[in-house]
Amino acid sequence: MSQYLIFQLHGPMASWGVDAPGEVRHTHELPSRSALLGLLAAG
């Protein structure tokens, strides 16, 4: 049986930045792998 860690992030004002090749920086709706690892390491 595989083991999983399932959790829900809730932050109505949260945004997850992506690469900014110019002056405009876009965001994703979901965090990247490194963002999730940072949250786990900080907690």
Descriptive report:
This protein has 43 residues and is of the alpha+beta class. The chain is 23% helix and 9% strand. It has one helix and two strands, in the order ββα. It has one helix at 33-42; strands spanning 16-17, 27-28. The protein has a two-stranded antiparallel sheet with strand order 1-2. The longest helix is centred in the C-terminal third of the chain and has 10 residues, at 33-42. Keywords: Antiviral defense. It comes from Escherichia coli. Pfam families: Cas_Cas5d (PF09704).
Rg from alpha-carbon coordinates:
13 Å
**Which term fits the overall shape?**
elongated
In the predicted model, the low-confidence regions spanning at least 5 consecutive residues are none
Helix-and-strand structural type: alpha+beta
Amino- and carboxy-terminal Cα gap: 27 Å
How many strands in all? Answer: 2
Give me the strand/helix succession: EEH
**Helix content percent band:** 10-25%
Count helical runs: 1
Sheet bearing the most strands, described? 2 strands, antiparallel
User: Within the largest sheet, what's the order of strands?
Assistant: 1-2
- The chain-level mean pLDDT equals 82
**What percent strand?**
5-15%
